[in-house]
Amino acid sequence: MVTNNIVVLGAGVSGLTTAYLLSRDPTNSVTVVAKHMPGDYDIEYASPWAGANYSPMGEPGSNQAKWERETWQPLQEITEKYPEAGIHFQDNVIYNRTKDQQTATGKNFAALMNADPWYREVVPNFRPMPKDQLPPGIDSAQIFTSVCINTAIYLPWLLGQCRKKGTVIRRAVFKHVADAANAHHSGRKADVVVNCTGLSSRTLGGVQDETVYPGRGQIILVRNTPGTMAAMSGTDDGEEELCYMMTRAAGGGTVLGGCYQQNQWDPLPDPNLATRIMKRAIAICPQLVAPGQGIEGLDIIRHGVGLRPIRKGGPRVEAELIDRVPVVHNYGHGGFGYQASFGCAAETIKLLKETLQHQMQAKL
């Protein structure tokens, strides 16, 4: 049996999902190499800071929409079959305000906020909220069954699934993507390197993709758990500020967010923004706190900042040869890395198989 030696560079949700799918094929020998691993909290490592949930944002007919469509079923299956993965089902309420349609936030999330979105055929229990149930100031709303992912459990679960199938996990830092080919645990040069380095693809030698830039997000994780998942089309506090919340599975607390500050690198939480986020959360979900209480009723676990790896033109899922090393890229997913993870990983593996086939033909 021919063995394919593969190095996956990066251990965020994109890298681990790709490695997870690769490891299920016994012809693949996979090494995951990364600077940061599940359990780390670092501004360079976006995945632990995510909410994370399934709120499709891809425009109809786009690659993003395709990848998000292909990701729902695997997430649903994991939620149903593997409670140890830290995912649970939860109703997602999307609140729309007509006045937000022309704002930056309204435009970024237009596909999600559409009253008749493409994803209504994908997610279970999609339904509009009756007009007489709409909160003040809300023009329309929809509800559907989504999932909320406890990233502190799910990322280690993915890593554990990889290890169970023989994947070797290593820490390392590389200045050039081609150098990763020498990190395979067999001691032989890898046949393919899969680049899942997210925002670091901006500075990684051989890639240096200047179209990748950060979309800063700030969250507060609280112990208050009303079991609510909700998002609003915009806020009155600024075009780059968001209002959303979700309760994580397995005691993971409730995530309150947020913002979408493009080209902003600041790793430190802004206390004034945090106050606005908490006030907005209580406004759309009063049951977060006891009657009559404001933000002082929130039991804070931590404040967090993550840098979403946005890429102009969308994620890069493509193959190329760099210094004679075959590389397949899978990076630049912005704020939808989890909800497009399986779709992007499947396409990455398709490109990887084509790359290996070309190599085989070249040898013959």
Automatic annotation (TrEMBL):
Gene Ontology molecular-function annotations: D-amino-acid oxidase activity; FAD binding
Pfam families attached to this UniProt entry: DAO
Named cofactor requirement(s): FAD
Record: residues binding FAD: 177, 197
SUPFAM superfamilies associated with the record: FAD-linked reductases, C-terminal domain, Nucleotide-binding domain
Annotated keywords: FAD, Flavoprotein, Oxidoreductase, Peroxisome
One CC-aspect GO term: peroxisomal matrix
Main location: other
Compartments in which it is found: Peroxisome matrix
InterPro entries reported for this sequence: D-amino_acid_oxidase_CS, DAO, FAD-dep_OxRdtase
Its EC number(s): 1.4.3.3
Annotated positions binding D-dopa: 244, 335
Catalytic activity: a D-alpha-amino acid + O2 + H2O = a 2-oxocarboxylate + H2O2 + NH4(+)
Any one Gene Ontology BP term: D-amino acid catabolic process
Domain FAD dependent oxidoreductase: 6-349
PANTHER family associated with the record: D-AMINO ACID OXIDASE, D-AMINO ACID OXIDASE (AFU_ORTHOLOGUE AFUA_5G11290)
Similarity-based family: Belongs to the DAMOX/DASOX family.
Name of this chain's protein: D-amino-acid oxidase
Organism: Aspergillus homomorphus (strain CBS 101889)
